[in-house]
Amino acid sequence: MNGCVHHFLENSASLRPDKVALVHDGERVTYRRLDRAASRLAAFLVERGVLPGDRIVLLLGNGVQYVASYYGILKAGAVAVPLNLQTGPEALARLCEELQPAGIIMEREGTLLRTPPQFLPSVRFVLFADAAAPAGEGGAWGWDQALKGEGLPPEGRQVADTSLASIIYTSGSTGAPKGVMLSHANIVSNTRSIVEYLHLTEDDVQMVVLPFFYVMGKSLLNTHVAVGGTVVINNNFAYSASVLRQMAEEGVTGFSGVPSTYAYLLHRSPLASFRERLPALRYCTQAGGHMAREIKERLMQVLPAHTKLFVMYGATEAAARLTYVEPERLAEKIGSIGKAIPGVTVRVLGPSGEELPEGESGELVASGPNIMLGYWGDVEGTARVLDRNGYHTGDMGYRDGDGYLYVTGRKDHLLKVGGHRVDPQEIEEVLMSSGLLLETAVLGVDDALLGTRLVALAAPLEGAADHLALLAHCRAKLPRHKIPAEIRLVSLLPKHPSGKVDRASCLVICGAAPSTTS
């Protein structure tokens, strides 16, 4: 038995009970206190009749209550289902109809639900994490009332590592959000692999600005709790100077982000002037989509000289991580997503499932103990991506002579323009190479003549670009059929809460619906 996710917290609380596990808004929480809160939350769930395998929805922002709830749900043998805080009432109703949760843990202020709604007959309680509510009134509980009892004893619930631990919904950047089912074994194996290649120890202090409901944010939590490190939660990334100040004050050793996180740090924060104030910053990691070469090169120049930059690749379906580029080879392999992490295999396969030789493009297919059980309530969707070869990522790419993998685009993002197959990522990379932009997204818009025409949304650096300069740059670098028909300048691209670009909202800005890829 490989152990369960909540054992990370229990082990660290046993080994270093007085070590600070979480720092948030001036509050410093030890492992002993965090584990006690999680155990009490688990006991509360059991008292409410929650059974192993029952789903518990989490609608919480990053904070102590979120972490205690997450591990408490797992201790009770239930399934943690973190949802985006921005989920609207109609979408929430659809998801809860799909999930049939036994309970909801949420914030009271600014939330959509005050008491258990009538359309959720499965919900037996709502626990408000930031307010006191009359105990048991209308099925609503306050955090203090729920956690006033004794904790669940260690032998209270035996959980198999093959059990479902969490359902994490994808951002929907490549279609409708899907509920990814991850077992304890999936998460534990990936956590241990990440700990291994990042060389994490109890001395590491991780700054978290990504939401915990996002799989990368959850991975940051699990890896550092696993080694007994410290997680610093900062929910104010828009005020980047204060984030950097806290990194300096707390001796942060690790920072993680998606491409937009680093674009913002480079161009709209005082990162360069903080270089000498971050002597403890051992490494930075990036995942969450393709990051332009220009941003990677600039980061290597601006980050402290001793700070290692890990470029990584993964998927929610892989419990977070699949590959990484060793920092010492990043300059040499700047366009690569690296090699598979320990315990994982990533192959380039042809349409018939045959493994392709180096340099030949095919689909990246991954296998390993971290690969999901499937999509919740979607047998057909699961069968489309999981087969005897492993998890089909939907990303096209190739392997070079040194065994390093490269992503050339997505099967479902390819656009057909005037009879040509066009990969938007290639054009985005060229636009970013101008050095004039903070970020960009290239989209396909329906066109009566061409079928699809290319429109680029571009957020320029302050006073740095106009659409004519960008078009001239494209003409110098791209064949005619890949030059955007239009470049629209915007202040920022719309994002999912994870920081990933929301391509559906980008299309709305263009006044268009998604074009087909056939």
Automatic annotation (TrEMBL):
Its lineage reads: Bacteria, Pseudomonadati, Thermodesulfobacteriota, Desulfuromonadia, Geobacterales
Matching InterPro entries? AMP-bd_C (IPR025110), AMP-bd_C_sf (IPR045851), AMP-binding_CS (IPR020845), AMP-dep_synth/lig_dom (IPR000873), ANL_N_sf (IPR042099), ATP-dep_AMP-bd_enzyme (IPR050237)
Tell me, what is one Gene Ontology molecular-function annotation carried by this entry? acid-thiol ligase activity
Instruction: Report the protein name in the record.
Output: AMP-dependent synthetase
Q: Which residues form the AMP-binding enzyme C-terminal domain?
A: 426-500
Q: Which residues form the AMP-dependent synthetase/ligase domain?
A: 10-376
